[in-house]
Amino acid sequence: MSFLKVRPSRLQGVVDISGAKNSALRLLAASLLTEEKVTLTNYPAPLLDAQIHVGMVEALGKSTICENDKHIEITEGKRLSTTLNWEGRSIRNTLLVLGALTTRLGEGKVPLPGGCKLGERKFDLHVMLLERLGATVWEEGEYLCCSAPSGGLVGSDIHLPLRSTGATENAIICGTLAKGITRVWNPHIRPEIMDLISMLRKMGAKISVFGQEHIEIQGVEGLQGTEHEVIADNMEAITWLVGSVMTGGDVEISGFPYADLEVVLAHLRSAGAKIFRNEDSLIVRGGTCYPIEISTGPHPGINSDVQPILAAWGACAKGESRIVDLRFPGRYGYAEEMARMGVKHEIRGDMLVLHGNGGDLNGALVRALDLRAGAALALCGLVAKDETLISDAWQIGRGYVNFDRKLRELGAAAEWID
Ligand SMILES: CC(=O)N[C@H]1[C@@H](OP(=O)(O)OP(=O)(O)OC[C@H]2O[C@@H](n3ccc(=O)[nH]c3=O)[C@H](O)[C@@H]2O)O[C@H](CO)[C@@H](O)[C@@H]1O
Ligand SMILES: C=C(OP(=O)(O)O)C(=O)O
């Protein structure tokens, strides 16, 4: 059990954005596609999910060396196993590990996917795409298994019924070493996916992106090693931005990934954020949180992961904020926790309505039901009276590098208790 204790604070100073979890994990899975060395820089080593993933690639037979919390080298000294024996917590990325093992070695067995509990999180599209490439997929207890036909996966047309991030990534990974051409129709084109494609191209993969229409992958015989810099975490950037406005702070967010956040920035500007562009940093000079009305969707729309953070904004606004999560309908469990802090809400169909009272919140014992929920509660804790204690704070550690330390560096009263 871990706790994050937060007291009312005004954020002030400079904060650096770390490498993105949702990119780094995909790149770690892609490192399984080659026997050569893969080096990742700007790598968010302290993240719990990154540590689990490194444990998984090591369990498969890779060796890793991690330096300064920002640099990792992944090498292969012995034959890679096709079975990932794993007893601890699982992550959503095991689906991509399965794809990588199957396309390179012809078969794989991985723990069923974990990740945030966001309501139903099916993996039928991953099964569908592997089957389209000729594989057989089945479950064995807590494991998901896959076997390619003799001769390996065979390129095919994969039609995604919805722009799934993970399924797009898995199809790309599988296509790199499949025979012939794989086309992924209706893909999700997100910054993290473009980052994965960029690394795979450096490894020798032949991938063409035809906008939101389709991605074409010409399978190759083998992939080589490479060095690649993980992109900045757009979720972390938004979290600090929202926290700075909520607390009337004065913060410079260094390494701000502007191009990845255009739509969210437009919403926050019109909802009262006082923000200024300074080359690669963003400067927040406080502002006032006005009510927001947003729905989530594929990029460049608002990512589902952002909406709990925007709910914290809504809690600080005076009036009704409305959130509809089209990606993960009903990802509103955090609202019950915010209610303990005095945030009134109701669920109308698929919509969360927050009755913001201008941030008149009280400190409380609340629970981080998932990663972004935990971060959103911490932001509420910065404006609430007295002390807020967030249990299951490890959830935050899954995806934010040194969250409590960065809060303290910004002048906040925040303490991590293991
Ligand atoms: C590690 C990582 O990068 N996680 C991100 C990834 O998750 P993830 O890749 O799991 O999310 P998807 O984009 O696949 O999910 C979008 C929707 O598709 C549904 N679906 C997905 C796969 C499937 O096989 N069948 C199916 O029905 C999901 O239940 C969800 O309703 O993208 C989500 C946004 O899209 C983000 O919130 C997650 O932070
Ligand atoms: C939902 C998230 O991640 P995962 O898919 O790893 O659970 C997230 O990053 O907010």
From TrEMBL:
Extract one GO cellular component term from the record: cytoplasm
Alphabetical UniProt keywords: Cell cycle, Cell division, Cell shape, Cell wall biogenesis/degradation, Cytoplasm, Peptidoglycan synthesis, Pyruvate, Transferase
Q: Name one GO molecular function term.
A: UDP-N-acetylglucosamine 1-carboxyvinyltransferase activity
Q: Which reaction does it catalyse?
A: phosphoenolpyruvate + UDP-N-acetyl-alpha-D-glucosamine = UDP-N-acetyl-3-O-(1-carboxyvinyl)-alpha-D-glucosamine + phosphate
Which Enzyme Commission number(s) are listed? Answer: 2.5.1.7
| Ranges where the Enolpyruvate transferase domain occurs | 8-407
Which Gene3D superfamilies did the record assign? Enolpyruvate transferase domain
What are its GO biological-process terms? cell division; cell wall organization; peptidoglycan biosynthetic process; regulation of cell shape; UDP-N-acetylgalactosamine biosynthetic process
Pathway assignment: Cell wall biogenesis; peptidoglycan biosynthesis
The UniProt similarity line reads: Belongs to the EPSP synthase family. MurA subfamily.
Q: Which NCBIfam families match?
A: PRK09369.1
Would you tell me the protein name for this molecule? UDP-N-acetylglucosamine 1-carboxyvinyltransferase
Q: Which organism is it from?
A: Marinobacter salsuginis
Source organism lineage? Answer: Bacteria, Pseudomonadati, Pseudomonadota, Gammaproteobacteria, Pseudomonadales
